[in-house]
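Chapter review: from sequence to fold.
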Amino acid sequence: MTFNDDEQLVTPPNSGPQPTPIIQGRAQLVSINKSTVPLEETKLRVLLEITGGDYSSDRPGLDLVAVLDVSGSMNDDGKLAKVKTAMLFVIKKLSPIDRLSIVTFSKEAKRLCPLRQITENSQKDLENLVNELKADGATNISAGLQTGLKVINDRHITGGRSVGIMLMSDGEQNAGGDAAQVPVGNVPVHTFGFGISHEPTVLKAIADNSIEGTFSEVQNIDNLSIAFSQCLAGLLTRVVEDLKLILTPYEDESTIEQVIAGNYPQSKDDATGSVTVTFGGLYAKEVRKVIVDLLLPAVSKERGSDVLEIGFSYSFRGRFFEAPPATITVRRTGASTYEQERPEVRNEETRLQTASMIKEAKVMADDNKLDDARDKVVEAQNSLEDADDASNPLIEMLKSELQQLLKLMKSEEIYKKHGRPFVFSSETCHYRQRFASRGDIEGLRLFATPRMDTYLEQAKSFDEDPSKPPPSVDEDEKKEMAANPLAPIAGALIFYINSAIQSLQAIENIIKRGL
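The token string follows.
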């Protein structure tokens, strides 16, 4: 059976003209590093930040597949009712440029509907499907995932559209094959462990198999609408696709020793020494930070030195864009004192160290060395107390994360039931540099975007009174536009200004090297 019956997209009457997509400046790149380094052989650490633009009204339409566990255990503790409320929130947030398909799974998987364009009529149909959900049978996560992927891969309307799968399960897979072994290709798959009996290992593996997927643990079943809302906020604000960062050292001036970019794929050209990092999509105001460690050879005299060329590319609604390359230039000097590492670099080092120590603590706890795991978490806490800027919001967020984790390591039973899912979600958050729900969702906002903050409040209100629909995504965009009228052109303006600055800097560097 093929699922190529996705609905045609019909432009609603009185919808008005669609905004013309602006390709340039949808992501901005900033580099942070020391400007002077010694004459002798030395290492240079460069921090790169790629930030998604803050304008998403010209976003591509979203083809979303919700893959929902309706096994027998979903009848317990009112979980099925929570899923229905969370899905109603999703349905009400989507707009006419979006399409939604719903897949359920228990012993087998079933596609309840094809990808349907969101209209007033289809919203009612989709809501009826959700309200009629019933739970029974085993848990075949693999069948649900494969069916969801088939809905995406069999579409006949694909051009210029973004895609995503949201997969939720409350238990262990006990039917079908191993979902962790299902290849997902380039489809972002975001998984949600629901309740206290889910098995996080498989759900995290599914997310890890996807280039930009996340795993969220939602052990508090009252938080499912919020967790869904955070994922949806990202999917509805994708500003670029296929983002790639290209790093090239300068011959005889530098060598790339390592690139730290979480668990995003890297490839190296042995001939040039260049490294390419592939990120996939980027949400509005979302940031990817990359650390590049360079080895600079000794030089005999003071001079300027080009040490790294940085380029990036992306696509948007089927159109490819490649930014002009930027160059990192430093001054080689024989001065007796040298610059300290920049605060932004030290903050990112602190975050990476904390993430690494959380991972070490997990390994210890999984090996039944819970005392050692707790000691490692305390060590991480002490390291944060010694941080240069202990009042930095990032440091405060990391402290909160460690405090929550320590509480979840009080005993073996608490750790296995609550701590492991928390750590899995923490890992996916840090190494994807993308928000993932866990623990105190309202308090732990690491990597959350402005739209996610907005949707958190909307989801809370909807949970309190589902009869009051949340604002549509179109209304969200209008409100953001009113607050920042220059948003549609800001990215392009920044791009052209930065291009002019780079040209002037290149001229300045040529003059300096000639002196």
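Two observations follow directly from the output. The chain has twelve helices and 18 strands. The first strand starts at residue 27 and ends at 32.
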